[in-house]
Design brief:
The complex is a heterodimer of chains A (about 650) and B (about 325). With about 650 residues, chain A is mainly alpha-helical. In chain A, about 65% of the residues lie in helices and about 0% in strands. Chain A contains 21 helices and four strands. Chain B has about 325 residues and is an alpha+beta fold. Helices cover about 40% and strands about 20% of the residues of chain B. Chain B has seven helices and twelve strands. In chain B, the strands form four sheets. Chain B has a five-stranded mixed sheet with strand order 3-2-1-5-8. In chain B, strands 4-10-9 form a three-stranded mixed sheet, with helices on one face. Chain B has a two-stranded antiparallel ribbon with strand order 6-7. In chain B, helix 2 packs antiparallel against helix 3 and helix 5 packs across helix 7. The chains are: A mainly alpha (about 650), B alpha+beta (about 325). The structure holds protoporphyrin IX containing FE and copper (II) ion. Copper (II) ion binds next to loops of chain B. The site of copper (II) ion has 8 residues of chain B, from loops.
Amino acid sequence: MNEQHVVIAEESYTTTSDAERAAQLAKVWAEPSGFLGWFKAVHHTTIGKRYMVTAFGFFLAAGLLAGAMRLQLAFPEAHIMSPDLYNQVFTMHGSVMMFLFAVPMMFEALSVYFVPLMVGTRNIAFPRLNAFSYYLFLFAGLMLFAFFFVNSGPDRGWFSYVPLSGPDYAPGKRADIWAQLITFTEISGLCVAVEVIVTVFKLRAPGMSLNRIPIFVWGEVVTSFMVIFAMPGVVVASTMLLLDRTASTQFFNPAVGGDVLLFQHLFWWFGHPEVYIIFIPGTAIVSTIAATFSRRHVFGYMALVLSLIATGFIAFGLWVHHMFATGIPQMSEGFFTAASMMIAIPAGTQIFCWLATILTGKVVLKTPMWWVLGFFFVFIIGGMTGIFVASVPVDLQVHDTYFVVAHFHYVLIGGAVFPMFGAFAYWFPKLTGRMLSEMLGLWSFWLFTIGFNITFFPMHILGLRGMPRRVYTYPADAGWTALNQIESVGYIFLFLGVAVFLYNVWHSLRRGEMAPANPWQAGGLEWATASPPATYNFLNMPTVNGSEPLWDALPDQPVVSGMHEDVREIVTTRILDAEPEGRDEMPGPTAWPFIAAVVTTALFIGSIFRPIAVSIGAIPLAIALIGWFWPTREESQRRARRNIWEQS
Amino acid sequence: MNLRATALLFFSSHQSPLNPAGIQARHIEHNLVLIFGITSAVYLIVIAVLFFGVLRNHAREGFVPHTLVEDPDVDRKATYIVGGAIGATVVLLFVMMISSFITSHRTAVLANAQSLKIDVYGHQWWWEVEYPMDEQPFRMVRTANEIHVPVGSVVTIHATSRDVIHSFWAPNIHGKKDLIPGYENDLTLEVDQPGTWRGQCAEFCGLQHAHMAFDIVAQSRADFDRWYVQQLSAAPEPTTPQTIHGRDVFLNHPCMMCHTIRGTTAGSTVGPDLTHVASRSMIAAGTLKNTPGNMAGWILNAQSIKPGVRMPPNPMPGQDLNDLLAYLETLR
Ligand code: HEM
Ligand SMILES: [Cu+2]
């Protein structure tokens, strides 16, 4: 093979400019310190890190709940947990993993932290909204676990079908808490979606035209649009459920003309895209890591971007494949089977492009790349079993059995958790300024991968041997005992894999080798900043000349100059070609988003008990919003001087 | 030993889609095996390519700073290969899609006029089963958790729910069908092997979803007819003092507030019909074998066996319990 040597011009951005400018920028962009300062932070790296730590905490909590399930299922007719507790535990596990871990981690945390860095700007658009969305997310999780600890955790499954979750069959507050959890996470997801779209469409570095946007950023943009289009379905479903439960509407009561299937349609309109919301960022991470560690631009950039977009579209045409057993007409079954199989085409395209990247590159085997290889091994199995469930007749056999439990864990853990660990290994130096230990990284990789397969592979077989999902126990003579025990042993390996990862993080934070700005010789703009980045991100605002800005930079790649550096100023650019268009000012730190989030939380939780809480809570919320948007005099004057509206 | 026999040994079970005992399940199994074959072959190829690719060209020396490996000629060739692979994917997807359509079509055997109609109602957490007779709507077989069908004839299960959503699934015979309040679904099937095939609720339906099973008993036409006539009759009058006292215990306890025994004054339909309870092999929706000991435990405190079940504990003196059991024994 011909090897072509290209000089990577990373140095061009880090020309030691005057320390004075750096000091000035650091002062202007400083995050407030001290205890109270914690509540005022608005920089995307601060909020992004909080998102990561919090979402990872929920991952650990939901993982422990999974351990409890594995313990209960290790023995037939076991009485370790009561059926009531088991139902709460699996519902909590599913809901926390989906709403408080997977989406917040893969979408919110990673895009809040990395998108502004990757597009070369100084903060995310609407930073205060960003802080608000984080607090709402945090409170959603705290609320959920608080109710769980007082034996009021939701217990109707993560999709809480009516009428099982309706007023007649779910007394108490458990189902309301589930519905409100949805409301919380919807709002925080929607906020971040808006921020990401505006950041990417308006704040890209000059020169980053559409065809030079990093694949990871494309992934998060597609995800943002999916969030915006998917959420209304579940907003409506969960609100109607809440109204049925608290305000005696009858949307889902068949006795008086309501319809129970309506809930399923609305839920899966959201629920199916949700799965893609979780793993599109994952596949985008794979593209990123595969390129860096194969030492080449990713193969088929255009095909990959189009596949992401196509996946985003087709994902909205599949929801009925969760409902094949409800007795829908054969004609529409055929349509949804075809659509479900069609989505394998963009998925396959991506896989072939990654293979081509790896085979035509020169693979450097470091921990992040190992996670990517593990991703292939696992995720493709999930994709293949996806074809089983897309086929109506086969789905009628495996739907709601452990086969499906295996399928979606291969997809979700393969498509989100493997890339997530890869992403941590890859970006940890950027986040913290320290390198992770390679040796511990490999240990956690192998323990996790082996444990994962021992835990989940036998579930395929269990499903084909007739074991339904969501059962708290099973008969001793059903022939399911041995496989269940093997799975429970696998959990121990999974547990150890995560424990070694945590130890690695803890150890590296204290003693890890210091990380240079660009330890992997990668091409993304995030590597052009210090590790960890300063609060102003870039000393010199970069310009871009290719899809891997550092690799493609000209020897004399220009930087943006002439910005006001005594205020939080950023450049805005045009959507298509990212030509500079104007400048704008980012709002500074404030505690109002935190206060607004506290009020919103009180309002939501209050409304579970008394619907009137919505009206009463609106008053302090209005006050908080007024405080939030109250302009200062200097700010308005500057804005008037800049006169940005007339210029553009 | 051939592959199929090995698979059978491995999966052989009375609750498994891979051990079909009915025409529908057999068609589905063929479809499943086809998809399994294609997807596993593709998977093995992809993983092999990846494995050998990485093995062959990984950088043993680690990072070489400031180098990229890119070659337009190689990329052009790779484009053709990737294009070909996508093409092959599309073709294979088509094959699997068409085979699914054909299978769907084949399993949807149209119910003919002679088909046996059975109404199944889902309850939290048991199955109510009725064999309606158009001529005499009030005289029909009603049982619970045990569905008898004649081997080799078309049966239409007409299903709905009395409370939340359940799903009817006897994997050896056919795929599942949901029982949805407000909707009525039909499932047409044909069992072609005599035997007892276990089924289970497949849609989470609350606390005791795990204990909501049923049996499909497939028997010869003659056996079925005999069973049917037997079920049609009312309960026999008790004859011994013990069984007479047993019946009085039944009628004087809360039992009669929920259960029916045709031929007595107990006529409530909250719980399963007990007119022929002794003829059934399991109690509590497949939870316990129908033995006097199990029955005694169940009557005294069903909550300890199936927590949350809609049947209260019925404490009673040992003598009463014995007589009650003796009476129930006569309900064949
Ligand atoms: C620590 C590794 C994990 C283990 C051992 C595990 C185990 C399980 C088990 C045994 C169930 C079945 C519960 C039942 O049917 O009774 C389950 C359900 C589920 N899991 Fe996991 N899981 C793990 C990680 C994850 C992750 C990372 C996700 C998502 C990103 C996830 C999402 C779900 C969902 C959505 C359900 C369905 C819950 C429901 O039925 O409502 N799990 N898990
Ligand atoms: Cu059920």
